[in-house]
Amino acid sequence: MRYLLAVSLGKSLRYLLRLIRRGGGSALPGLIVSKLAPGLLSRTLTKLPMGVVLVSGSAGKSSTTQTLVRLLEAHGIRVFTNPSTANIRQGYYSAILESGDLFGRLEFDIAVIEADEGHGVSLAREVKPRLVVLTNVLSDQLDRFNDPSYVVAMLQSIVDLSAAAVINADDPNLAQLALPEQTHAAGLSEELLLSKEAPSYAFNFKPTPELVRSARVVSGGVEMAGSAFPSSSGSLEHLMNDALALLAASQLVELQVERAREVLSSPERVFARNERVVIQDREVTLRLVQNPTSFQLNIDELSGSETPLMLMAGSDIHDPSWLWTVDFSKLQKVDIVSGSNAYDLALRLDFAGVDINDVEPDIAAATDKFLALSGDHATILFSADAMRRTRRHWGLAK
User: Fold this and answer.
1) Cα(356)–Cα(344) distance, rounded to whole angstroms?
2) Is 50 helix (H, G, I), strand (E, B) or coil?
3) Is 51 left (phi over 0), alpha (psi -120 to 50) or beta?
4) Which domains does the chain have, with CATH numbers?
5) Separation between Cα atoms, residue 180 and residue 160, nearest integer Å
6) Is residue 189 scored above 70 in pLDDT?
7) In contact, 33 and 93? CB cutoff 8 Å
8) 273-279 and 282-288: which strand pairing?
9) Fewer CB within 10 A of the terminal residue: the chain, N end or C end?
10) Is the pTM of this model over 0.85?
11) Who's near 125: CB < 8 A, 6+ residues apart?
């Protein structure tokens, strides 16, 4: 009865909030239900017949999770998952409110959960994952974690609570973890590992163990178990996400090569990760930037044809000084700078020699101005807070 009352309240509140705030309103109901029925999460997820998979790490969690979900669904598996920005505790409950019945029960075979590094340990304690997928450890979010070693320690705790692991073997921080016997690793080919495009990770001065790579990223795709899987992903970071998802899927189902190839060759993207949406009959490309590393990667991937271009720095950037660690010199012009930290971002762009046409801190006003501008490749780079406010203003569902 307790679960019925809590879930009914959460579902009702979620419905009412979404009437008031289109495209939003899921965080508060999840938070309330997590307080009223704290045991609902473990009770629900541990009953799934194929168990729980956790995906964590500094970057690439959302893309890896989405690709893994699509691979499993292509094999006929019913997958419960959480939205990519709902990767903390109340987000897990919000996902149950959306997909479960009035008792919180889920009609799925398996859960694939994206878990924030700081929240994954408590979730792992509750659900004892059958598999954990770890993407990387970066020198980012220092305002939250102070030092990458804390992230490594949290990921080690998740691994200790998991039956098996799939990891990025190129990251020395992950390779040095005390890993379970059932561990499989993915990495770049030797040629790509030595290229200037190879990803970099948080500094680690200990000797890196050599792990056997069960999947390898090659130019244009992934090789695994003697088969090639061409991918639509562009950068090596995205190809590594594909490799981790493919390797994880192979541990969960008997992989059908052609089905997996079809998934990896599809250009479908998780929202706000180079996502294309149509607003007022106009296509807009959305790119989420969460820290200096992801901001830099997104800047580097721009072709120069993005017009109009808007950059948005929201309130989630608690310490705007990190904007000065991003190299904006590739940009020649930004049409609009917006968000609560708009003036800090505009100052950084000005020092980088970037022309700025307009600074508008109010996100609703800025997005309306943006849609009125001419150009064939409308593009927005925004932080998570600005992303949520923009999507809410445009009525896009989470």
Assistant:
1) 13
2) coil
3) left
4) 2-265 (3.40.1190.10), 273-394 (3.90.190.20)
5) 8
6) yes
7) yes
8) antiparallel
9) N
10) no
11) 161
